[in-house]
Design brief:
The protein is an alpha+beta fold. The chain has 4 helices and 8 strands. It folds into 2 domains: about 5-115, Deoxyribonuclease I, Chain A; about 115-165, no CATH class. The chain is elongated.
């Protein structure tokens, strides 16, 4: 089942009770089989996890020596990202719960974007993408090796984060 087969903007969020990486649990003790199964599900459905700003963890057991974990997430599909390119999630202060609520903002990009750049192969199928890339690719005359690559890739990543097919 591919969520991206649907052209409807889709947002799926909630308490998934699973971690995606060992670093998402303060104790570092995770069930790697469940973690792998969850990551496989996310990959098979072609969902993308929305970057979350705010606190590092979204759940705590509220003990004297607490265990803290990222259990709450927001996932989107490509159509959602295309319609709402500035959407972000932000973890806010919990009141009376063991979970931090997540607030999704579709327009302001308040939570920021991940600093990790991931090229999406689906971009290659978009009409006009090649021409758009060429128009954004900087031209440097006197840069050397790695300096040239860092300047080009930095500008290119910033451009891609705001690319919406226009």
């Amino acid at each position: 089942m591919l969520i991206n087969d649907e052209d409807i903007p889709t947002l799926v969020g909630g308490d998934f009770n699973l971690v995606r990486r060992i670093e998402e649990k303060s104790s570092g003790t995770v069930n790697t089989n469940l973690m792998e199964a969850f990551n496989n599900f996310v990959a098979e459905t072609e969902l993308r996890e929305m970057h979350r700003g705010g606190s590092q963890y979204t759940w705590t057991n509220k003990q004297t020596n607490p265990i803290m974990v990222v259990l709450d997430r927001v996932f989107t599909n490509m159509s959602m990202e295309a319609h709402f390119p500035l959407a972000s999630a932000h973890s806010v202060t919990r009141i009376g719960s063991d979970h931090n609520p997540l607030v999704v903002d579709l327009f302001s990009n308040r939570g920021g974007r991940s600093r990790i750049f991931r090229f999406e192969t689906a971009w290659l199928k978009q009409d006009g993408f090649r021409d758009w890339v060429l128009s954004k690719w900087p031209k440097f005359q006197n840069a050397h090796g790695i300096d040239k690559w860092q300047k080009i890739s930095s500008k290119f990543r910033r451009s891609l984060r705001g690319w919406n097919g226009n």
